[in-house]
Amino acid sequence: MTFTISFGWWLAPALTSMLFFVLAVGLTNYLEKSPEGRGIIGAGFSGIAAVASLIVWLIWAVLK
User: Fold this and answer.
1) Is the pLDDT of residue 18 over 80?
2) Which regions span the lipid bilayer (predicted)?
């Protein structure tokens, strides 16, 4: 039981983080088709995804 609780506590923020980064890649491919702008837009979306991921992890740590 302890292994299940300690192993599973990180699943919600990890899946949320993965979702943020998948959305960042999808938005990058959807919004910009030229290779020059894709890097800048991708970096912006990845930065937003990283910040959102950190916020989710911090909220999860405080609630835990």
Assistant:
1) yes
2) 7-28, 40-63
